[in-house]
Amino acid sequence: TGEERPAVAATLRALNGALGRPAALWVKESGARNLRHRDFLAPRAALSAAFPGGEVPADVVAGVASVGGPGVLPVQGCQETPAGLAVRLRRPEAFRRLLGLPPGPGPAAGPPRRWVVLHCPALLGPAALRPRHLRALLLTDHLAQLLRAQGVGVRLVPALGPEGSRQVLRQLRVEWPSGSGGSGLPDAVSALKQALGQLPCATAREQGLGRAALPEDAICKVHLRSFVEQQGLVGYDPNLDVLLVTEKKLQTLAELQQAVLQCMVRNPWCCCLSLSRHCQGSCCSVVHVVSCEEEFQQQQLDLLWRMLDPGAHTALQKHLVCGPVKVTNPSSPIGADQYFQLRKRQMYEASVMKYGELAQDEAWTEVIDTLTVAAIRFEMLSTAHRSQITLDLEDSSISTKGTKSGAFVMYNCARLATLFDTYQRAVERGTYPPLPPASELNFSCLREEGEWLLLFNYLLPFPEVLQQAAELPTPTKGIRITANTETVCKFLIQLSMDFSSYYNRVHILGEPFPHLFDQMFARLQLLGAVRDVFHSVLATLHLPPLSQI
Predict the structure, then answer these.
(1) What share of the chain is helix, strand, coil (3-state, %, to 5)?
(2) Helix (H/G/I), strand (E/B), else coil: 511
(3) Do the domains 337-541 and 115-267+281-327 match in fold?
(4) In 10 A of CB 183, how many CB atoms?
């Protein structure tokens, strides 16, 4: 059709432009009560600040009612209300424009113009991962998927060695590269050692200190505090002082360096290789995703890398720090594998209580495994990464029951699969005709409150939700950044709640009477789009949709 997909941001820009004021005055409504009367509101307080006496000229109101343009939702009218200026949309037209379009294009074809190296030091630690390591690992995996969905190239570091936690990663459906870090790693380590020898703030073992002065595995020590002061760096822990440089630390930096170099080589637009002094490092950035317990050690490595390789990419290192993971009722320190097995057993027991004794076949094993992964990912990722998480190992309800759990999301996704499977079998029996093309559907049949909620709060904004969750804004100062990845889990939970409420209230596949088909077809088109949103968003969590529960 050539139509641009409607978007919240484009509509808000048009509405704000129509008011002719620099401030952003309009807000999108989302609550069911307010959506009965309006879709967008310019609140009275904001209007009072922008217009003398809060009075909006009639010609301005008329201009709001006639806004349009690419990506702008169709406006039915604008009127003054006690709450402010209220805009209502032409809803059947909005349904047509969102449900009648083919799926939007994915990321642009061709090599990514921007690359991000995501470094998760948790995989460098002890062989047995703890829940706090798991949080950083799952966040890194999720962020990688979100970035890729926006067309950003991603390199994951470190490569998983032969002794790595492969079993836990496989159970949690974490896709992580394996290997030794590349054939060029020994040369890179040697180059870093040479650079280390040139540092004025490094003290080597050979400089008359004697073997007793440094631990056996230390190559030398470097003075971080003086480097921070000389460079005028901000945001680092004031307790950083002397760092003992070991072979393992240099191997970690060498692998990071190799990953950055590979990103630059694969990016034809990158100027870092030939014009490094002019490059701002925007074509490849490095983000360290760490638990708060490991933040200090990562800052040490950050500074060491800056000392040894003073390029644009090291200057733009950023740290994404996860808050603590508090485990209640542990009989002993619990590992990630024990945590997974515990939640899996609880998920199985909860499923037996709900559905009766389960068949011990491969299909149900796969369902329980998927529900367990969903429960753990939502438990770890639905809280802002800066905040503390509390895992109650005895209380399984947060994981297996209620509307806040990953299991609830997967259950509603499965309900949609069952609906369309039931419809397809009815079509094959001749009970219903096949679903006509979207261009032939009558979307004015969609008048139920829950239908507009599903379209306006989920189908419309979901591309922007994923885009915003993948943003890694550069801080004004310091080295910490914040990612709002928790909005993805919250989006899925809220979508599941509103879909469940609608589905419990409205009978989709009614009696096979021709005069009822128009409404049934429009509803199936709407719910098919809801299903596609579930699938697209769940993919960023490495969760496959379930066809049954």
Answers:
(1) 50, 10, 40
(2) coil
(3) no
(4) 9
* Rounded-to-integer distance, Cα 252 and Cα 264, Å: 19
Distance in angstroms (rounded) separating the CA atoms of residues 109 and 115? 15
pLDDT at 280 over 60: no
The yes-or-no verdict on residue 10 having pLDDT over 50 is yes
The answer to whether 372 touches 344, Cβ cutoff 8 Å, is: yes
SS3 string, 80-117, reads: EECCEEEEEECHHHHHHHHHCCCCCCCCCCCCCCCEEE
How far, in Å, are 73, 156, 215, 269 from residue 171 at the CA level?
Answer: 43, 19, 39, 38
What's the whole-model pTM score?
0.92
Q: What ranges do the domains of the chain cover?
A: 8-89, 115-267+281-327, 337-541
Q: Are 482 and 386 in contact (CB under 8 A)?
A: yes
Helix (H, G, I), strand (E, B) or coil at 259: helix
Average pLDDT across the chain, whole number:
88
- Residue 376 and residue 339 in contact, taking contact as beta carbons nearer than 8 Å: yes
Distance CA 372, CA 360 (A): 16
Reduced to 3 states (helix: H, G, I; strand: E, B; else coil), residue 60 is: helix
pLDDT of residue 480: 94
Give me the architecture of the 8-89 domain, per CATH: 2-Layer Sandwich (3.30)
Model confidence at 123: pLDDT above 50: yes
| Structural domain 337-541, CATH architecture | Orthogonal Bundle (1.10)
CA-CA distances (angstroms) from residue 50 to 26, 41, 370, 464? 12, 14, 52, 28
Phi, psi of 115 (to 5 degrees): -125, 150
Mean pLDDT of 198-223: 72
Looking at beta carbons, which pairs linking 509-512 to residues 24 or more positions away fall under 8 Å? Answer: 509/419, 509/422, 509/423, 509/426, 509/432, 512/426, 512/431, 512/432
**351 Cβ contact partners less than 8 Å away, ≥ 6 residues apart:** 358, 367, 368, 371, 400
Tell which CATH architecture fits domain 115-267+281-327: 3-Layer(aba) Sandwich (3.40)
- Contact predicate 483/471, CB 8 Å: yes
Q: Is 531 left (phi over 0), alpha (psi -120 to 50) or beta?
A: alpha
Secondary structure of residue 223 in the 3-state scheme: strand
Residue 455 — very low, low, confident or very high, per pLDDT cuts 50/70/90? very high
Would you state the pLDDT for residue 332? 75
Which residues does residue 119 pair with via DSSP β-bridges, in sequence order? 157, 288
Strands of 110-229, DSSP E: 115-119, 153-157, 202-204, 218-223
